[in-house]
Structure formats: C-alpha cells, structure tokens
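DM from R.C. (forwarded with permission)

"hey, sorry to bug you on a friday — could you get me a structure for this? deadline for the figure draft is monday and I only need the backbone to look sensible"
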Amino acid sequence: MNKKLIGSIFFFIGLLIGAVPLTKNITGYSILSSSSFLASPFYIISLAFIAMSLIILTSRTYLDAIIIPTEPSTSRIRNKARVGADAYHNSGAKVIVASGGKMPYMKPEYRHEAHIVYEELRRAGIRPAEIRVDGTSRDTLENIVHSIRMLDGAGAKDIGVVSYPAHLDRFEKIFKKAQEDGVVPKDLRIHRIETDQTLQETLWEIPARLMTKYQLRRKVNEAKTTVGFVKRAMYLMVRKFFD
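My reply, with the result:
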C-alpha cells in the first residue's frame, strides 16, 4: 500500500479519536475543561496516531532497485530518467533498470527507448555497472516481466517504479496479475515514484487501458504483445505533434 495513503489514514483516525471527547454529550451547562481533555486517553491516542502519520509521511523510502519504463515521447522519457536518477541517489538503491524497446518512428540515433534513459542516467552520474538495460520491451506488460528478470540475483525485494500516476495504476494492476499467475515472485513489492502527468499522457492512457484489459484476459505468460496499425498510429501522433 502507498505510504502516503497509510499516513493519511493514520492522520484521519487521529483526528477522529481526538474529536470524540469534544462531541460527547455533557449534562447541563458543564463543559470539558482543557486540563481534563489533555489528560484523557482519547487525546493521548489521538496524538499517537497523528505522530505516526507524520513519521510515515516524512520517512525516507529505502529501495533495492528502480525500474524506469519508457513511453512514446522522448522528452517525457528524459523527464522520467531525471526523476528516477534523483530517487536512485536518495533511496539507497543499488541497481536501476531502463526498460523500453525499439518502437516506431524513433530517431535513428537511438537503438531503443531504453537508450534514452541510459543517456540521462549517465549524465546524472550513475555508473554503467549500476544500470541494466532492457531494450526489448514493447509495452508495460513486457516492461514488468523483462525488468524483473533482469533483477534476478540482485536481491531486490522493494522496487521503485518511475512514471506518471495513470501509468503506475496500470503497472500495479499488471504486476498484481503477474504475481497471481506465478510470473513474478510474491515477495516482491513495488513502490510508486510519481512524475507529473501531462494531457498527452492522460489521452494515451485511454486506449492503453483497453489494450491492457484485453491482454489480461489470459495469463500474463500467455498474453500477446503486438505493435499493429493502431499502436503505430498512436506513436506517430505523439512523436509528431507532442514531442
């Protein structure tokens, strides 16, 4: 579960518990004195929950590895890589995976989309030995399966994933299905590292969600990835008009 959500839940519970004495029926015109309220168990428990929420919300997340799945826009890939590099330096991670294959209408100087991520990571001072490059993945499902395979032997259990919120929602859905199908180990945990989300990415997610839903009708290891006419047209539109 997202630590922001957990922290928010604890904070809300603390407020509710603290409000109990204030809403309690009091006979006549008597009021609850500040001293009796401060000494009440409700106040102490309320403070404990609020304190725990602040600790959770402000605590540093330690990760074993980070995955950066790519997307059609070169500029947005570079943005993801910069966010991922910052997270890598601050999270204690030991390995970072750039995941994205050779897709339609790419600039010829790039072997695959992961190549763009690799360039930015090197600019950020991350050593080649710490970077693993998956240049074969053609969609989010393959980003997950191929990246996890590349982390074999790294001892990675807590893995950060860098992308915009709607893509991370889809990533988590596929990841959960991959665990259910036995494709991904059940003891792995993924943590969201969110970038901002552009209008272009919001629009991209409309057909992407439909394609993912279609893929997940089968088991993950039986799902098919194709780059047909529709996907090629989508890539052309993004790279021509938005990049």
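R.C.: lifesaver. Confidence is low (pLDDT under 50) at residues 25-32.
me: no worries. Residues 3-58 form one domain.
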